[in-house]
Amino acid sequence: MALRRRFSLAWASGLGLSVLVGLAAGVAGYTFVYARGASYLTDDPEACANCHIMREQLNGWRASSHRTAAVCNDCHTPHGFWAKYWTKARNGFHHSVAFTTGDFAEPIRIKEHNREMTEGACRSCHRAIVVAIGGEPGSVSCVRCHREVGHP
User: Fold this and answer.
1) First vs last Cα of the chain: how many Å apart?
2) Is CB count within 10 Å lower at the N or C end of the chain?
3) Could you tell me which residue, 125 or 37, shows the higher pLDDT?
4) Are residues 100 and 126 in the same domain?
């Protein structure tokens, strides 16, 4: 009886592991084949428009003054390697859930955390201007007045 029970437990745990591996492989396949997940590891702005909801933002960036100076990741992710890819993974997960479920506002709106990141990018690239006008961190919002610079 004990041998039979051990065999049943081993078979059940093996089956459970197989199901988990199959599920993970399915999600990975969907993400990296159908949803072109590998493109999100690049700095190519076209990747941001894999999801049709971002097409307007991509076209706005193409018409902006920043198209020759910055790509999406320059303004919307931190500049450090690990922080950048952590942010891309976190945002990608939230974006895919929202897009898959249809639970997003139109027009899309930037979340506070991402707004702060974009604000920091403005201040970093335009440091000389910020210092010249006496702008201390948090004193004046670049994004509040210049929100359409990257996406008119």
Assistant:
1) 73
2) N
3) 125
4) yes
